[in-house]
Design brief:
CATH topology: Penicillin binding protein transpeptidase fold
Low-confidence stretches: none
Number of helices: 12
Radius of gyration: 23 Å
Mean pLDDT: 87
Helix content: 55-70%
Structural class: mainly alpha
CATH class: Mainly Alpha
CATH architecture: Orthogonal Bundle
Shape: globular
Number of strands: 0
Strand content: under 5%
Largest sheet: none
Number of domains: 1
């Protein structure tokens, strides 16, 4: 009987081992399938529009603002909120992606994307908002290519000049003029941190429609600035106090 028990155990172990091997092989096949499809999407997109043509299209838009004419606080807040490891990763942030995957699995839905600033630029300029694996692969490939082609400063410049701020304003230049009637260089700390929060959900935070939600989002921006060392808590509290003291109509734009 002992011999039979050992034989049965060995058989079970063999079956489990082979099943795991088959499952692993299937996972590899599926992964290769989506990578191949994503590469096809990436190749088609970059063949139709080169990176330089994409950049030129953004730079030719009305209101385009060079990065050296943007307030440091606005740029720091953008990085803090959207991609705090922006200057450290090669276009794809494995840590943020893993965290987003865990949160999505817990929620049973896509609640967090994990996309870097470079990936967002790639998605907005080359792909649709469709949530598919192959589109995500294409986005990552495009982001990695962008990082090899452009400097971090250029990528950030293209990003802030092409994102949507609600109320028909695309790009930081148009948003600054549209909401506050001034050039981005003249934005106050309050205005900088308020604008940074809008692109996350323009329809929800557009100043003409939901100013109170935009102010709540601004609080999140200030928290991120403090958390990542761009601002002291005292300065953040001062900006928050200034924002709270303002009459809504004084900053809803023209």
């Amino acid at each position: 009987m002992p011999g039979k028990s050992h034989s049965t155990a060995r058989t079970a172990a063999t079956i489990v081992s082979r099943s795991c091997a088959i499952a692993g092989a299937l996972c590899i096949v599926v992964a290769l399938y989506f990578i191949a499809r994503g590469f096809g999407l990436y190749k088609e997109a970059i063949t139709q529009t080169s990176l330089d043509d994409m950049a030129a299209r953004i730079e030719q838009q009305a209101g385009f603002t060079p990065i050296d004419e943007l307030p440091d606080l606005y740029l720091q807040a953008t990085v803090a909120v959207e991609d705090h490891r922006f200057y450290a990763h090669p276009g794809f942030d494995a840590i943020a992606t893993a965290r987003a995957l865990v949160n999505d699995l817990r929620a049973g839905a896509i609640v967090e994307g994990g996309s870097t600033i470079t990936q967002q630029l790639a998605k907005n300029q080359y792909f649709t908002q469709e949530q598919t694996i192959e589109r995500k692969v294409a986005e990552v490939l495009m982001a990695l290519t962008m990082e090899q082609h452009f400097s971090k400063q250029t990528i950030l410049e293209l990003y802030v000049n092409s994102i949507y701020f609600g109320d028909g304003h695309t790009g930081i230049g148009a948003a600054s003029e549209g909401y506050f009637g001034k050039k981005p260089a003249d934005l106050t700390p309050d205005e900088c941190t308020l604008l940074v929060g809008i692109p996350n959900a323009p329809s929800a935070y557009a100043l003409s429609e939901h100013p109170e939600l935009a102010r709540q989002r601004q609080g999140h921006v200030l928290e991120k600035l403090v958390a990542y060392g761009y601002m002291g808590r005292g300065d953040a509290r001062l900006i928050a106090a200034q924002a709270a003291a303002k009459e809504p109509l004084a900053w809803q734009g023209t």
